[in-house]
Amino acid sequence: MVNWAQMYDCYGDVDRVPALLARAEREDDTGTWDELGYRLILEHDMVFPASFAALPLLVEMASRSPRAQGLAGAIVQRAAGSHGCDDLLAGCAAAIGAFRELLDRYVRSKPDDYLAAFRDLIAAEGHYHWSAVLGDFADDFYQVDCPHCAVEVTIAIGGYGRYSAIRDWNLGDMDRRDLRPASPEELSGVGRWMHETVVRDREMVLADGIAHLFGRAECPRCASVFKIADEYAAAHCPVM
Questions:
Q1: What's the whole-model pTM score?
Q2: Who contacts 71 (Cβ-Cβ below 8 Å, separation ≥6)?
Q3: Could you report the per-residue pLDDT of 20-51, keeping only the tens digit for each?
Q4: Are 44 and 78 in contact (CB under 8 A)?
Q5: Pairing outcome for strands 139-145 and 46-47
Q6: Which is nearest to 100 in space by CA: 132, 69, 136?
Q7: pLDDT digits (tens, 9 = 90+) for 88-119
């Protein structure tokens, strides 16, 4: 049983969220869901005790409510933030596990919002960083430092090319070098799981992008070769 008297939302209120959840269970009202969204997630970034207190009920509603599924996913994606609610997050383990199973079934159905749901699934698996940065590989750029000479390297993965380069803000991407995508056999860890999942779901654009993201790049400055995902994660992954 949730003690809502201790579960404040982003406005410091302790009574508004449970009332809104009760209303959302009764009727699919846009105004109710909009208010829940901005009370549980501040400026699309911070979450609060009420966010995690609401999560189990949102997961329970998710199978019949796309809005509940979306809001639950938004909360889970922000679970790595500095919210001071680690004990509440730990108490949501069963709900997040159920949400992970629901999302896995959902992405298998090839929904129109596949990428958004897949990013929620990545977060439910605990890979919050990749959930936040994974794009559709139509126009994606990643900035990494070469681990050998420390120059900043631009990694491009999109319809315009798949390359590493030195970015000049006046001249564009200079001295492009083709990326070296990882084969399915070379992938491991989160990269392997992500790739296998999208291949299973026949999302081949995502599969090709992930193979390049977890592949290798050549530094245009010193010609050394490094793993893109390793360097990007080392610089950007949050400390848990």
A1: 0.94
A2: 33, 36, 37, 40, 41, 58
A3: 999 999 999 999 999 999 999 987 679 999 99
A4: no
A5: unpaired
A6: 69
A7: 999 999 999 999 999 999 999 999 999 999 99
Per-domain boundaries in the chain: 4-128, 139-236
Contacts 24+ apart (CB under 8 A), 27-34: 28/65, 28/67, 33/67, 33/71
For the beta carbon of residue 196, count every other beta carbon within 10 angstroms.
Answer: 14
